[in-house]
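P.,

For your records, the input lines for the assembly:
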Amino acid sequence: KAGVTQTPRYLIKTRGQQVTLSCSPISGHRSVSWYQQTPGQGLQFLFEYFSETQRNKGNFPGRFSGRQFSNSRSEMNVSTLELGDSALYLCASSLKRAPGNTIYFGEGSWLTVV
Amino acid sequence: DQQVKQNSPSLSVQEGRISILNCDYTNSMFDYFLWYKKYPAEGPTFLISISSIKDKNEDGRFTVFLNKSAKHLSLHIVPSQPGDSAVYFCAASGGSTSYDKVIFGPGTSLSVIP
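Structure tokens returned:
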């Protein structure tokens, strides 16, 4: 069974540009969450999608957005990139929304903003 | 405010000894707890979880203990092996409005010395 797939794995962008990251969840998983990891900050929750609807959102500015498609694949977009957006962006999927669900991560997309 | 805390940024243990990683949480509504391990340049991988109705869960060398009154959980690894060297994240979920919002701690970097 294929795991969570994220593309691209590595990318470099210039300040002010925008970026789109893609995530394909484990087959059958309907919930997709996004996290940002920066050195010393752990995993910061960005948002969670289920059935094409955003269900939860973390404390990030509106420059960070996402969406989920009918096949559960998800994309996140960051507009007007800032140097501080350089981070590892992780996508995670789970079978359904309920307390006690385990989430499974992809390998992440490394974004460097210069 | 940090709802999940891991107060030890790093820990060093001799091979064969016990590793104890600690985690504290502030939200009494959390009812499901997870531990993830992360190697550099990889996504976090699920290790073990525990529901709030239990106080212990064991899986091979890994045991998680939960003390709800103290809002504290710990991960025990016995015996520790060099391959266990990684960053360990404690995570929690549950609550009245955000069932699938999994909150992570900042992580503890474990080094197992041969």
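Two observations worth noting. Chain B touches chain A at residues 31-32, 34, 36, 41-46, 49, 51, 89, 91, 93-94, 98-107 (CB under 8 Å). Chain B has a mean pLDDT of 92.

Regards
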